Amino acid sequence: MRSRRIFFVALVATLLCVLLWVQRHALRSSSSPANSPPSSPALSRQSSVGVTASSGSPSALRWDVGQKRAYTLLSERTLRFAAKTKGDERRDPSAPSQDRYRISISGTWQVAVVRVDAFGVLLEAQLSEPQIALGDATTSGATEETARLRTLLATPFFLQQSVSGQLRALRLPAGHTPFSRGLLKALVASLQYVRAGDSPTVHTTASSTWTARELDATGEYEARYVLGSSRRTCDKQRLRYTQVAAAQGLLPVASLGRLTGSLQVHFELDPDADEAARVVSLSGSEALDVDPGPDMPQVSSQSQFSLRFVQATQIADASARAQRAMGSDYDVVAMGQADLDAESDRRSDLQAVRGASYGDLLARLDALAKSDDGARRAELLSQLAALVRLDPTTAQKARQTIVSGAEAATARTLLGALGAAGSSPAQASLVALAESDSLSPDVRSNAVAMLGLGDHPTDATTTALSKLSSDRDPDVRGTAALAQGNAALAQRKEGHVAEAEQAVDELLAKLQAAATVEEQLLYIQALGNAGDARALSALQTALSATDIELRSAAVTALRFIPDDRVDGLIASTLLQDPVELVRRSAVFAASFRSLLIFLGPLRQAAQSDRDAGVRLDIVGVLGRSLAFPGVLELLTALATRDPSPDVQRAAAALLSQPSRQRP
């Protein structure tokens, strides 16, 4: 089933060598049958840009747009994996020696700042004249694979990062393979230098020490930076991984096996330069060990890398290059999500469908008893979604079935399949259904909801959601507003900032014009889905409202907003609001933020809040991060001294979890 393959890909993403192992071994055994069917916003032209924070005060982080820097780059990585005896956690001593892989890359690394705005920095990158060696313990030298990889790495691509320097995504030209994408992710992530500045994911603990949340090819981790007394050196250390990159996004480390290792990087800095020229050189090393679980290869990686400045030049066409990056010729590759091999994905869909036609699956769906427990219906939904991806005409067939008056449960399953497929044809069918006045409000609302769940909304989808948010039916109208917020967040993640801003502008205008508390709640929730910092002022106003539900919705809506003022608002609401519902909403919002920042406020609330419901919610948040320093001590105190038996039992249950989830 597809869900199994997604879990497998999540493990694959942990290290490049697992991907290699899959390519060599697993995919051979699951090859498809022989009879299978064939398979921009306005940009700045300034030469020097000081980014303005959303508060309106100038940020200390200044990037020089148009500056191009060249460095010598060296990267050596050795990957090892060993099979385990079935059902055994130990390494298999008979693992073949060929399961050791070496990747060596050198060349001239060139980066140019081509756009800077309040939402991030866009850089054009290129590895000129790359020298590459790939092979296991017994092979090396030039191969067809090496030559292709050299061509891919020598082609300019783009990096999207926060103003502070956190890498968020790559924009790669067509032709890249899962291996080359993963290799580039690992390479550029190792060069990250995150500044202490205006970012909700950077926490400054002292004038010369700060902690940042960063993304690499493996997942999300927390890193500590210590600045030297002369401010000309800085040392970076990875503290721990918090999440692992999977096909469906970031997942907790504990759900995917054991992940240990270290990262040390030493930076030489120019303290008087702007951020584009801040790093003069770096050298580092990384070790990583992954045990994905039974029957999967145990993996380790050791790498060394260095970067040294050569020269600086200026480019005159930064705006044109940035515009090119936003074109259809470049694919967005998110750092927080594993890359799927398209052919492997297709094979998985073929296996899920098992040769069934749309008519076959629809007949099975219609035959389900109304008392069905949902398991069989969910399996059919997954098969239908796979068929939509394999055969785009299936989306049109599903639409016609719904329009023809399918039974309500069947219609909901077909709508779910279209939403799960997420393809352009699937979205087009959902748009047509949502806009059809001949269908019931229930069907139309469900179609709109499915549109709002997609990670890659098309232009037609966002246009339809904007139109439907003014629909005469209140259910359709409300669902479309919420979906519009979801779509705006997805667009921002993909780098379509202007389109996302347009949706947020519409939602802010509707919030301002709202005549009832019910309408205000709707648009606050929609803005919360969008996660745009420009909604902060309106949400602050709602936090001061006398209406309890407005305050609850407003603090919940802060959860995704990338502004360092948000954490203080959530914390003050948690500790000061007189109503339990609002404080519980603050705990919920805090669960989406950094525990590094919120452990103190959560501890204070856990020890002093008069309502057991708030304290119980805090226990739930702490239970997701048992390895975080201070969490076990707080849970121990709650398990033994909290006045509520329910809180004590919940904390004690977390403390009794298997030791592998604890430090």
Please sum up the structure shown.
This protein has 663 residues and is of the alpha+beta class.
Task: Explain what the structure shows.
By secondary structure, the protein is of the alpha+beta class. Among the domains are: 66-340, Lipovitellin-phosvitin complex, beta-sheet shell regions (Roll); 564-663. The chain has 24 helices and 16 strands. The strands form 2 sheets. Strands 3, 4, 5, 6, 7, 8, 9, 10, 11, 12, 13, 14, 15 and 16 form a 14-stranded antiparallel beta sheet that branches. A two-stranded antiparallel ribbon has the order 1-2. A hairpin with a 3-residue loop joins strand 9 and strand 10 (219-227). Helix 9 packs parallel to helix 11. The longest helix has 20 residues, at 474-493.
Describe the structure using short key phrases:
about 675 residues, alpha+beta, Lipovitellin-phosvitin complex, beta-sheet shell regions, 14-stranded antiparallel beta sheet, two-stranded antiparallel sheet
Question: How would you summarize the topology of this molecule?
Answer:
Elements: H1 2-12, H2 16-29, E1 49-52, E2 58-63, E3 67-82, E4 100-117, E5 120-136, H3 144-153, E6 157-161, E7 167-173, H4 178-189, E8 202-206, E9 209-215, E10 219-227, E11 233-246, E12 249-252, E13 258-269, E14 279-291, E15 298-314, H5 318-325, E16 330-334, H6 342-353, H7 358-367, H8 375-390, H9 393-403, H10 408-421, H11 424-434, H12 441-451, H13 459-468, H14 474-493, H15 497-513, H16 517-530, H17 536-543, H18 548-557, H19 565-576, H20 580-590, H21 595-608, H22 612-622, H23 631-641, H24 645-655
Antiparallel strand pairs: 1-2, 3-4, 3-15, 4-5, 5-6, 6-7, 7-16, 8-9, 9-10, 10-11, 11-12, 11-13, 13-14, 14-15
